[in-house]
Amino acid sequence: MATAGIVTSDDSVFTEMAATASPAIGALALACRALIFDVLPGTVEVVWPRQRTAGYGTGPKKMTEQFCWLAPYTKHVVFGFYYGTELPDPDELLEGTGNPMRHVKIRTPEDLRNPALRQLVETATTHRVPPLPGTE
Whole-structure pTM over 0.70, yes or no? Predict the structure, then answer.
């Protein structure tokens, strides 16, 4: 059975999900989320609390309007990219074998401050997703 996502306009749903992880991983998850909103203010967030994931994009639809997702795990946060195989990755941060998805494991605040990660997010916001409503 599919879990319905919750389109959010505040921090509460994601914050509650992040709180189910350890304090360190929860803080990393919140920092990952902040990076996404810093790169693209107005990003549409859809949280799937039962799956412990959240998707981000210019609309709520996976694969057509979302460019990345976050998933807190025990020892890291998965910072995933729906079309990661198509993104330039000169620093070879992306992992995985899914087609077309790839991810970066965020284990420390230093991982999150890597300029190459920010560049991946910036590129992903314009790759295969329509612009945010009102910005065309």
Answer: yes
